[in-house]
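Problem 12. The chain below contains 81 residues. Write out its predicted structure in token notation.
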Amino acid sequence: MKIFVGQKPDRKHIQALYRCKHPENEALLDLFRAKLDEVKTSLVVAEDMTRIHRLQGRAEALTDFLEAVEKSPEILARLGN
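Solution.
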């Protein structure tokens, strides 16, 4: 979550992440999950270290986003809504 939340989370950013959990945005989350699966599959077969490092960066960003969305209700509660 360090990419999207950080040490001092901004309420409006956390609220935006929280809104991603609404059913109308499920397709967006599905897209991010699908892309993460594609990146993981590419990592398994990648042989070039430069490509591996790039894929690892993508995987980290996608994972961080999905984790931030999942934990956004908890973070909002800590911020006091």
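Discussion. The chain has one domain: 11-79. Students who got a different answer should revisit the alignment rule from Section 12.3.
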